[in-house]
Amino acid sequence: MQQKTLLIAICCAIFLLSNTRNVLSEKLPIVLWHGMGDTCCFPFSLGGVKKFLESEIGVYVKSIEIGSSIAEDFKSGYLVHPNQQIEIVCAELTKDVKLNNGFNAIGFSQGGQFLRGLVQRCSTVRVRNLITLGGQHQGVFGLPNCPSLSSRTCERFRQLLNHAAYTDLMQNFLVQATYWHDPLNEAKYKNSSTFLADINNERFINESYVKNLKKLNKFVMVQFNKDTIVQPLESQWFGYYTPGQDKETQRLNETDLYIKDRIGLKTMNEENKIVFLECEGNHLQFTKEWFRENLFNYLM
């Protein structure tokens, strides 16, 4: 009798272990979030990426669309506040039954910091691995394809934008103003930024942001080494200009954000949850071969 009971227990244990392994090894769906000047579905951009991932990994891929049309989605990248976008996407992903068991997420350009904001704010979704391609995690202080340090015209435009970026009108009207980060006036940035300063815990520590980000299995950040869109390009790895000037940059581990562990990155790095990847080329310029070799491991 005892032997029979022991045999049943062993069989049950094997069954449960087998099922656990199957769940852990099951490939998760993937969620994509496009960047500025793009949409969910252009065949030459994220529409193509969606088909590529569906065919090669064989999972459900959802490309986020804000609004009810491609035109509205395109405009959202400029005119719909990131806070509003994150609320919309949180509700949409929560209702998607195909994502109930969790998913991996890939953010392209500003979609990277939007997805990070989603992870930190939306506790009703389960993101396993977050990948950001060219994300501006510490913001930007320059115009796309306009080198402020070597062009007087670009520098003048940057100065003009700098005066307007932190007004209520621009913070509420222009998406890019919400992650404009002036290293020459850190106090103004922290007090006026309506998105980035919040998710980076610049004004006070929101413990739920820290807790939710730490739930990630891996946080993968891709930096494009010849990027002319993101200024400074180090923002893609949470680096930025050293406060008080706009020429010398510092790495993530030299920033107050890391040293004071304001959003949990120091802890995550010590737990080997953060991955820094480089891609040679300009902003979002990668090949399918590079993608397969470097990112598939975090999507399988």
Automatic annotation (TrEMBL):
Its EC number is 3.1.2.22. It catalyses: S-hexadecanoyl-L-cysteinyl-[protein] + H2O = L-cysteinyl-[protein] + hexadecanoate + H(+). One of its GO terms (molecular function) is palmitoyl-(protein) hydrolase activity. One of its GO terms (biological process) is receptor-mediated endocytosis. It is an enzyme of class 3 (hydrolase). SUPFAM superfamilies: alpha/beta-Hydrolases. Residues 1-25 form the signal peptide. This is Palmitoyl-protein thioesterase 1.
